[in-house]
Specification:
By secondary structure, the chain is α+β, with helices and mostly antiparallel strands. Helix content is 49%, strand content 17%. It has eight helices and eight strands. The model has no long low-confidence stretch (mean pLDDT 81).
Length: 209
Protein backbone atom coordinates (compact mmCIF):
# COMPACT_ATOMS: atom_id res chain seq x y z
CA UNK A 1 0.00 0.00 0.00
CA UNK A 2 2.82 2.40 0.91
CA UNK A 3 4.55 1.54 -2.38
CA UNK A 4 1.43 2.54 -4.36
CA UNK A 5 1.18 5.83 -2.45
CA UNK A 6 4.84 6.61 -3.18
CA UNK A 7 4.36 5.76 -6.87
CA UNK A 8 1.27 7.97 -7.00
CA UNK A 9 3.12 10.86 -5.37
CA UNK A 10 6.06 10.58 -7.78
CA UNK A 11 3.80 10.40 -10.84
CA UNK A 12 1.75 13.32 -9.50
CA UNK A 13 4.88 15.46 -9.11
CA UNK A 14 6.22 14.50 -12.53
CA UNK A 15 2.90 15.26 -14.24
CA UNK A 16 2.57 18.58 -12.41
CA UNK A 17 6.05 19.60 -13.58
CA UNK A 18 5.35 18.40 -17.13
CA UNK A 19 2.10 20.33 -17.47
CA UNK A 20 3.72 23.43 -15.99
CA UNK A 21 6.50 23.24 -18.59
CA UNK A 22 3.94 22.75 -21.38
CA UNK A 23 2.12 25.91 -20.30
CA UNK A 24 -1.09 26.90 -18.57
CA UNK A 25 -4.21 26.47 -20.66
CA UNK A 26 -7.78 25.48 -19.99
CA UNK A 27 -8.83 22.13 -21.48
CA UNK A 28 -11.05 23.79 -24.08
CA UNK A 29 -8.16 25.99 -25.24
CA UNK A 30 -5.68 23.17 -25.92
CA UNK A 31 -4.39 22.85 -29.46
CA UNK A 32 -4.58 19.42 -31.12
CA UNK A 33 -0.94 18.48 -30.44
CA UNK A 34 -1.24 19.65 -26.82
CA UNK A 35 -4.44 17.67 -26.32
CA UNK A 36 -2.82 14.51 -27.73
CA UNK A 37 0.22 15.01 -25.47
CA UNK A 38 -2.03 15.57 -22.44
CA UNK A 39 -4.02 12.39 -23.09
CA UNK A 40 -0.87 10.33 -23.67
CA UNK A 41 0.82 11.66 -20.54
CA UNK A 42 -2.22 10.86 -18.43
CA UNK A 43 -2.56 7.35 -19.89
CA UNK A 44 1.13 6.46 -19.58
CA UNK A 45 1.41 7.87 -16.05
CA UNK A 46 -1.54 5.82 -14.78
CA UNK A 47 -0.08 2.42 -15.75
CA UNK A 48 2.41 1.97 -12.85
CA UNK A 49 -0.25 3.14 -10.39
CA UNK A 50 -2.86 0.68 -11.64
CA UNK A 51 -0.40 -2.22 -11.83
CA UNK A 52 2.39 -2.34 -9.16
CA UNK A 53 4.27 -4.94 -11.25
CA UNK A 54 4.96 -2.35 -13.97
CA UNK A 55 8.28 -0.53 -13.28
CA UNK A 56 8.13 3.23 -12.73
CA UNK A 57 10.62 3.63 -15.59
CA UNK A 58 7.90 2.44 -18.00
CA UNK A 59 6.06 5.67 -17.21
CA UNK A 60 8.95 8.05 -16.57
CA UNK A 61 10.83 7.41 -19.85
CA UNK A 62 7.77 7.84 -22.16
CA UNK A 63 6.71 10.84 -20.08
CA UNK A 64 10.00 12.64 -20.66
CA UNK A 65 10.00 11.59 -24.33
CA UNK A 66 6.52 13.05 -24.91
CA UNK A 67 7.43 16.21 -23.00
CA UNK A 68 10.66 16.63 -25.00
CA UNK A 69 8.79 16.05 -28.25
CA UNK A 70 6.21 18.68 -27.34
CA UNK A 71 8.94 21.22 -26.49
CA UNK A 72 10.85 20.51 -29.73
CA UNK A 73 7.71 20.79 -31.87
CA UNK A 74 6.73 23.99 -30.07
CA UNK A 75 10.17 25.50 -30.73
CA UNK A 76 10.24 24.70 -34.45
CA UNK A 77 6.62 25.62 -35.15
CA UNK A 78 7.25 29.08 -33.67
CA UNK A 79 10.09 29.46 -36.18
CA UNK A 80 8.06 28.27 -39.19
CA UNK A 81 4.64 29.63 -40.07
CA UNK A 82 3.98 26.67 -42.42
CA UNK A 83 4.78 24.11 -39.72
CA UNK A 84 2.70 26.09 -37.22
CA UNK A 85 -0.33 25.97 -39.52
CA UNK A 86 0.23 22.24 -40.21
CA UNK A 87 0.40 21.37 -36.50
CA UNK A 88 -2.05 23.86 -35.00
CA UNK A 89 -4.26 24.83 -37.89
CA UNK A 90 -5.17 28.50 -38.22
CA UNK A 91 -8.03 30.83 -37.29
CA UNK A 92 -10.73 30.76 -39.95
CA UNK A 93 -13.36 33.40 -40.71
CA UNK A 94 -16.93 32.14 -40.81
CA UNK A 95 -18.31 35.65 -41.21
CA UNK A 96 -16.11 38.32 -42.80
CA UNK A 97 -17.26 41.94 -42.91
CA UNK A 98 -20.85 40.84 -42.42
CA UNK A 99 -20.74 38.18 -45.16
CA UNK A 100 -21.42 34.55 -44.25
CA UNK A 101 -18.68 32.33 -45.71
CA UNK A 102 -20.62 29.17 -46.49
CA UNK A 103 -17.58 27.33 -47.89
CA UNK A 104 -15.68 27.70 -44.61
CA UNK A 105 -18.71 26.47 -42.66
CA UNK A 106 -18.91 23.31 -44.79
CA UNK A 107 -15.15 22.62 -44.73
CA UNK A 108 -15.12 22.80 -40.92
CA UNK A 109 -18.37 20.86 -40.52
CA UNK A 110 -20.14 23.63 -38.63
CA UNK A 111 -23.88 23.89 -39.16
CA UNK A 112 -25.70 27.20 -39.41
CA UNK A 113 -27.60 26.29 -36.23
CA UNK A 114 -24.30 25.84 -34.32
CA UNK A 115 -23.07 29.19 -35.61
CA UNK A 116 -26.27 31.01 -34.66
CA UNK A 117 -26.35 29.31 -31.26
CA UNK A 118 -22.80 30.43 -30.43
CA UNK A 119 -23.60 33.94 -31.67
CA UNK A 120 -26.59 34.12 -29.32
CA UNK A 121 -24.42 32.96 -26.41
CA UNK A 122 -22.15 35.91 -27.13
CA UNK A 123 -25.03 38.37 -27.38
CA UNK A 124 -25.46 38.57 -31.17
CA UNK A 125 -28.98 37.55 -32.16
CA UNK A 126 -28.79 38.08 -35.91
CA UNK A 127 -26.20 37.84 -38.68
CA UNK A 128 -26.99 41.48 -39.40
CA UNK A 129 -25.53 42.35 -35.98
CA UNK A 130 -22.20 40.65 -36.72
CA UNK A 131 -19.13 42.00 -38.47
CA UNK A 132 -16.84 39.01 -37.90
CA UNK A 133 -17.09 35.46 -36.59
CA UNK A 134 -13.85 33.51 -36.35
CA UNK A 135 -13.24 29.83 -35.64
CA UNK A 136 -10.18 29.81 -33.40
CA UNK A 137 -7.49 27.12 -33.33
CA UNK A 138 -8.91 25.84 -30.03
CA UNK A 139 -12.29 25.21 -31.69
CA UNK A 140 -14.05 28.11 -29.97
CA UNK A 141 -15.84 30.88 -31.87
CA UNK A 142 -15.04 34.58 -31.49
CA UNK A 143 -17.77 37.06 -32.38
CA UNK A 144 -17.23 40.74 -33.20
CA UNK A 145 -20.44 42.77 -33.45
CA UNK A 146 -21.01 45.66 -35.81
CA UNK A 147 -20.55 49.14 -34.33
CA UNK A 148 -18.50 47.60 -31.52
CA UNK A 149 -16.34 49.99 -29.52
CA UNK A 150 -13.49 47.48 -29.85
CA UNK A 151 -11.75 47.66 -33.22
CA UNK A 152 -11.01 44.28 -34.84
CA UNK A 153 -7.27 43.82 -35.46
CA UNK A 154 -6.08 41.75 -38.42
CA UNK A 155 -2.54 40.29 -38.15
CA UNK A 156 -0.44 41.23 -41.18
CA UNK A 157 2.99 40.27 -39.82
CA UNK A 158 3.74 37.66 -37.17
CA UNK A 159 7.33 37.24 -35.98
CA UNK A 160 8.78 38.77 -39.15
CA UNK A 161 6.59 36.71 -41.52
CA UNK A 162 3.98 38.43 -43.73
CA UNK A 163 0.47 36.97 -43.61
CA UNK A 164 -0.16 36.99 -47.37
CA UNK A 165 -3.60 35.45 -47.04
CA UNK A 166 -4.76 38.27 -44.76
CA UNK A 167 -3.26 40.88 -47.08
CA UNK A 168 -5.32 39.45 -49.94
CA UNK A 169 -8.52 39.30 -47.89
CA UNK A 170 -8.14 42.93 -46.83
CA UNK A 171 -6.84 44.04 -50.24
CA UNK A 172 -4.04 45.80 -48.40
CA UNK A 173 -1.11 45.06 -50.71
CA UNK A 174 2.51 44.20 -49.93
CA UNK A 175 3.72 47.48 -51.43
CA UNK A 176 1.52 49.44 -49.05
CA UNK A 177 2.75 47.37 -46.10
CA UNK A 178 6.40 47.82 -47.13
CA UNK A 179 5.87 51.58 -47.45
CA UNK A 180 4.23 51.71 -43.99
CA UNK A 181 7.23 49.91 -42.48
CA UNK A 182 9.58 52.38 -44.18
CA UNK A 183 7.62 55.31 -42.80
CA UNK A 184 8.02 53.90 -39.30
CA UNK A 185 11.72 53.17 -39.94
CA UNK A 186 11.21 49.45 -39.28
CA UNK A 187 12.55 46.39 -41.07
CA UNK A 188 10.36 43.34 -41.64
CA UNK A 189 12.66 41.07 -39.63
CA UNK A 190 12.40 43.42 -36.65
CA UNK A 191 8.60 43.15 -36.44
CA UNK A 192 7.12 40.84 -33.81
CA UNK A 193 3.50 41.71 -34.62
CA UNK A 194 1.87 44.12 -37.05
CA UNK A 195 -1.90 44.50 -37.14
CA UNK A 196 -4.31 46.69 -39.04
CA UNK A 197 -7.90 47.53 -38.07
CA UNK A 198 -10.88 48.18 -40.33
CA UNK A 199 -9.92 51.85 -40.52
CA UNK A 200 -6.58 50.67 -42.01
CA UNK A 201 -4.62 51.95 -39.02
CA UNK A 202 -1.40 49.97 -38.77
CA UNK A 203 0.08 49.12 -35.36
CA UNK A 204 3.57 47.65 -35.07
CA UNK A 205 5.14 45.88 -32.11
CA UNK A 206 8.88 45.44 -32.52
CA UNK A 207 10.83 42.42 -31.32
CA UNK A 208 12.48 42.77 -27.96
CA UNK A 209 16.24 42.83 -28.01
Amino acid sequence: MIGILIRTLLIYLLLSISFKIMGKRQLGELEISELVSTLLLSEVASLPIADPDIPLSNAIIPLFFILSLEIIISFFKNKSEKLKKAVEGKPIFLVFKGKLLQKNLKENRISVNELLSEMRVQGAFSLEDVEYVMLEQSGSLSVCKKNSQDSFSHPLIIDGIINSEMLDMLNYGKERLTQALKEQNTKLEDVFLATVNDEKTLKIIRKER
